[in-house]
Amino acid sequence: MSTILVVDDTLSELELISHYLRENGYIVINATDGKEALNKAIEQKPDAIVTDVVMPGMSGFELCRSLKGNPATKKLPIVVCSSKNQEIDRLWGMKQGADVYVTKPFTQEQLVRAVKSVVG
Length: 120
What we know:
Shape: globular
Helix content: 40-55%
Number of domains: 1
Number of helices: 5
CATH class: Alpha Beta
CATH architecture: 3-Layer(aba) Sandwich
Strand order of the largest sheet: 2-1-3-4-5
Distance between the termini: 10 Å
């Protein structure tokens, strides 16, 4: 049973992503901003992270860089889930350390497939 840390400042999105993952047998930890996510990633050691990009304070891209720069979290797979749907956004996300980039709106199947691709 894999544990996924879901990061999104929009509660409806956070709930939807969490619901999709729980329905597929994942244990879900929630965070509403990048700083909280960073702390939870270090303390609770999830198997992967699903993060939004546009958030107040620390963006999802900054979160990716912070996670990849920390020895305790650098191997943690990251799925970026964003409304930023241009190819340049996807490329930039991958450059920041994302393993998979999913654009909103997405289906439950697309999200679960993305998570399965990084944690099995």
